[in-house]
Amino acid sequence: MTEDRSELGGSELADRVIKEVEQEVPTEDALESIRPPVPDNRSVSNRWASAGMPAEKPKDFKSSTSRLLSQLKPQRSGMMLVLLLAVGSVTLSVIGPKLLGGATNIIVDGVMGPEGIDYPKLHRLLAFVLMLYIASALMAYGQAYVLAGVVQRTMQRMRSEVEGKLHRLPLGYVDSQPRGDLLSRVTNDIDNVAQSLQQTLSQMLTSVLTIFGVMIMMFTISPLLAMVALITVPVSLYTVKLIAGKSKSRFVAQWTHTGSLNAQVEEAFTGHALVKVFGRTQDVEESFSEKNEQLFKASFGAQFISGTIQPAMMFFGNLNYVVIAVVGGLQVTSGAMTIGGIQAFIQYSRQFTQPLTQLASMANVFQSGVASAERVFQLLDAPEQEPEAVQTERELPAPAPADAQPEAQSEAEELGGAHAGVSGPAGRVEFDNVSFSYRAESPLIQNLSLVAEPGQTIAIVGPTGAGKTTLVNLIMRFYELNEGVIRLDGRDISQMRRSELRSNIGMVLQDTWMFGGTIRENIAYGNLEASEEQVVEAARATYVDRFVRSLPDGYDTVVDDEGGRISAGEKQLMTIARAFLADPAILILDEATSSVDTRTEVLIQSAMAALRSNRTSFVIAHRLSTIREANTILVMEAGRIVEQGSHEQLLLAQGAYARLYNAQFAAAMTEVA
Questions:
Q1: GO MF annotations for this entry (predicted)?
Q2: What kind of architecture, by CATH, is found in domain 67-380?
Q3: Which of 101, 414, 519, 658 has the fewest CB atoms below 10 angstroms from its CB?
């Protein structure tokens, strides 16, 4: 049943069409099935209301520690040198107290004896001890220098591993992670691992060697006092283990909440203007305060509990000192020990308890580093995108299907563009029974078959959230298919290297992206080998040259992702110029004119017509007036293609496309009225 819409007023027509469109709006359940998986803390309701990410359950501490230390394996030679220098430094330093005890005996014997103090012998002994300490200090300096190089080279390699991992991660993983938390793992956590290793490796190695060296020297002076000194060690170690166990989970929570807070700050900063416009400053501040409070509690718990280790160790050290002083005094009075011997032993007792205290105090720093390492390892262990197909450089493209090959070849020959013939792909894209879903229980695209011949324009339309961008993401292999095949000129794209596939595709996204650099550099990003003339030609073709000439620095004007002096529409033009310069066989325009005014849109459409002339183009747009000339229009709703055909065919069908088109027409009539 149809009515003559010309007899209806503007507002009546709008109401009638809106009611028709509302019947086609997908339900929330349908929309949920076409969204990529996103964690709870990124949902709209949780963005401002959530107090923060829950503390992650720590992994096996021993395995994480072992894996962290295994990162040092490529630096074996450096670690061996560090070990040799540490052994030399500790050996020389632990000999000193016994020699000083001998110096004390020289003084005591001289004072008590008739011959007086043997000063030449005393001077030689003290000079020798001084040389030992100087040599020990030089070796310790060399140890610190070499270890710094070992740790920093290890961290450099770990950063490279993380960087490489980020490029191998599927788009679904990146979409499901808060960007601030991901950045925190790459920066803060790796920096904390480096700092922890730098502080603890040298100290722990020196402390362990000192403990064994001092124990040997104590047993050579007095086995009895040595046994007394060792009595407090088991109690000390048990105390450290008890405290470390309680603080371990809190360090993991500390760095987890640090990542959550970074995500909050990054999100609020990126949307700073919108936060101001919608008056959500107080909400952001409250959310920040809650997450900051959680970080405070986690950090306070970790630092306070781990901070009790050193006072506990000092208590046991002082207790040990008192017992040794009493027992040693009795040994001296009975003649079993000399004054120099008890003096040397007391020095050794201090040297013995000091590394124990240092080891205990280093435990919290090391645990913090392991907690950060766990978060980095979680990123490194994340599932990667499917590996590239193994191909040789001489491998020829698979032939197109027999029934389609002549047509595609003749089409390419007619076009005669840069992408025809053997110089590059013709741009024939075929969807063969393609099925895809983000979640197994929620099918999205099912049994889609479609052929885009070289030079054709395929428009994809539908309500917001219908899954239009998902379709082009499949062409780019950002996601892998569940079933079916997508072919480029007869070749299965899953058997092509991603770099090869994407080198033939140009994309203009709805969200513009500019890196820190000049306008010239941002345009040339599409083709790094382009000459100055080619950059300017691309800028002129896309009307970038007009506004660039008005800037004081012209093409040398520095821009970044936040824009600065460049408007949103001008940034959109620059991204189009970038795609123009890339000269791809396939072009994807995702809401390419959504950020420009009507006049600029007209200019862009004429530039896009020239850009699409010899290219297979996939255009995603809400403004249906911009895709009337498309060869094929796909209409998507709730992730499914419900109609396809030309503009005229779909209007005559009076289906979903006609309702969308009439809705925009009614809106335009209402604005005019």
A1: ABC-type oligopeptide transporter activity; ATP binding; ATP hydrolysis activity
A2: Up-down Bundle (1.20)
A3: 414
